[in-house]
Amino acid sequence: MKKQNKEVYTFQSEVKQLLHLMIHSLYSNKEIFLRELISNASDAIDKLRFESISSPRLYEDDSTMKIQISINKAQKTLIISDNGIGMTKQDTIDNLGTIAKSGTKSFLQSLEKEKNKKNELIGEFGVGFYSLFIVSEKVYVRTRYAGTKPEEGTLWESSGEGEYNITNITKKTRGTEITLFLKKKEEDFLEIWKIKNIISKYSDHITVPVNIQNYDEKNKTYFWEQINKAKALWTLNKSSITEDEYKKFYKHLTNDQHEPLIWSHNRVEGTQEYISLLYLPKKAAWDIWNRENKHGLKLYVKRVFIMDNSQKFLPNYLRFIRGLIDSSDLPLNISREILQDNSITNNIKKSLTKRSLKMLETLSKNSNKKYHTFWNQFGLILKEGPAEDSENLSKITNLLRFTSIKNNSSEQTLSLKEYVSNMNEKQEKIYYITADSYISAKNSPHLELFKKNNIDVLLLSDRIDEWMMNYLVEFEGKKFQSISKEDTSLNQLTEEKKIKNNELSKEMINFLKKVKNLLGNKVKDVRLTYRLTETPCVLLSDSNEMTTQMAKLFSAAGQSIPELKYIFEINPKHLLIKKICLINNEIEFEEWIKLLLDQAFLAEKGNLENPHKFISRMNKLLLK
User: Membrane-crossing residues (predicted)?
Assistant: First the structure.
């Protein structure tokens, strides 16, 4: 190989931080560097297979794919090579010298939070290449992009200390060869048995043969020995695959160090033929809420890797599902445009959606503990389902979990089936309340009637809950009812009939008229209620109007909302109300009523337009 034109580059600042960390801090489980390099080599071969569908010349008369590992104990070097797609000079600079798409910044931030899980995070954040500096004092990367001339090769050199060199070289074969000059204390990685163990542990199911150079003492010759099985696990019969093999394959597929909660392996034959292998992770990916980062299944066509993160086979509310699909019906040269409008794709998506929901249903029935783990990680995402997927609304609703008054905990463990089975005999609806927080929901004055009558109420405090409830109309024939909205069906549980029977005192009738005149159009109506037990007054939304929580959501999204007019309900049994009834001073009476209205607004909305005025009014009345 000829060298020429050496150029010196400086690593991007965040990569410098990362390299320093790799070299000086990450010492546990050092073997992960080999897992990452094998994974990268496998990806490079997958990319070549895909690109060569339209450009067969990229094979350069060699279509046999392989990853090779050789050891030189004299020079203390470990060499990993592949004959995949390779890199151009610019690719080398972009991929090995800058942050690019590696997520290095997020990785560094997460290390502060996950100090005891450093090596686990490496794979998750795609910064695996740099892990080789844990064991290496110097690294050479020789690479050439498939289909280019031999003299268009590139040599990348670095000691991981802030700079790297780029040199133009001649490389006869396509692909990438990485030479690790191992640190003195890392020489155990020069033992063939150790390399075999690591490959078997992490890379057994990579579909490319991983060969190691061995020496035959008898014949005094070198030979290549295959280490891994190199079979596509998903194509094997389910009965021949062990649980441990499924778990190992998941870790290889996703770079997730946690074992999956459950998986579903299925082969479909007939009008459409495809294999799916779906996994439910134990922990959410670090970027699952980042809309710029794509999530989805790996797509294979006739075992040829086509693309990562194909989002067309599962709805967005199931984006936490990991896995792959291997189709026999899609064309090998499929493009993203074809995927967007393809009846086969749509049919597969419907089938995989049902299979994913069935997998969740199985988990919920078989293991409360595991399902609780799932819900804590992905419950917020599943709550997007009712708005997105009306076809599977019933299945999704059964999978939802809530907390309630009777739960007496913020943990969302209650299913709607459990709620309905424990309903009060007189209860006609499923009652719920939405609020900014669990504490706020739990202490809402709207709950007083329900606590008194031993009626359970769902406490919803996630931001998405109000939106979700717009799409949940009923469950098992029971309609959902927000208790912060007007509901005449509750009258049978209260003493509301007293109002209709005109059994109010003259003082209370006059009091009600005075309050209505005083507040005018500040509220939609003023009326008495017997639904409260400890609170003097409360605000209620009209049954046809937007709730307070929905208004907050629209406002937070920058959308204009109509002015909300509330029904002001007053508890005639409350001692404070009885006392105010007796006040003859018009100014003092007005101050008390405005104070009560502000209190009700504070309880309902969590804030006031003019808190200073409220405090001033309260202080004046306290002094009296």
Answer: none
**477 marked as binding residue:** no
Q: Is 14 exposed, middle or buried (0-12, 13-18, 19+ CB in 10 A)?
A: middle
Q: Annotated binding residue at 496?
A: no
Question: Is the distance from CB of 60 to CB of 149 less than 8 angstroms?
Answer: no
Where in the chain are the domains?
Answer: 3-226, 233-373, 401-492, 495-623
Indicate whether 235 pLDDT > 70. Answer: yes
Backbone angles phi, psi at 185, to 5 degrees: -80, 0
| Per-residue pLDDT band at 497 (split at 50, 70, 90) | low
With tokens 């710029």, the residue in question is 292
Q: What one-character-per-residue DSSP string does 403-431 give?
A: EETTT-SSS--B-HHHHHHT--TT--EEE
Per-residue pLDDT at 338 exceeds 80: no
Sign of CA dihedral 247, 248, 253, 257: positive
The topology under which CATH files domain 233-373 is: Ribosomal Protein S5; domain 2 (3.30.230)
The answer to whether 87 is annotated as binding is: yes
Determine whether the annotation assigns residue 95 to a binding site: yes
102 is in an annotated binding site: yes
Nearest to 542 by CA among 495, 484, 490: 484
376 is in an annotated binding site: no
Q: Both ends of the chain: CA-CA distance in Å?
A: 96
| 3-class SS of residue 377 | helix
**Hey, which bits of 472-560 come out as E strands?**
474-475, 478-482, 525-528, 537-540
Using the predicted structure, report yes or no on whether residue 14 has a pLDDT greater than 70: no
What number of other Cβ atoms are within 10 A of residue 346's Cβ? 12
Reading the block at residue 85, the tokens are 């797609």
Q: Are 9 and 96 a contacting pair, CB within 8 Å?
A: no
Q: Which of 176, 18, 209 is nearest to 84 (CA)?
A: 176
Task: Provide CB contacts within 8 A for 339, sequence distance 6+.
Answer: 310, 312, 345
According to the annotation, is 101 in a ligand binding site? yes
Domain 401-492 listed as CATH 3.20.20.150? no
Pairing type for strands 322-327 and 274-280 reads antiparallel
> Whole-structure pTM over 0.85, yes or no?
no
Instruction: Return the CATH fold of 495-623.
Output: Four Helix Bundle (Hemerythrin (Met), subunit A) (1.20.120)
> For the residues 506-528, what does the mean pLDDT come to?
90
Contacts of 528 (CB under 8 A, 6+ apart): 499, 504, 508, 512, 569, 570, 571, 572
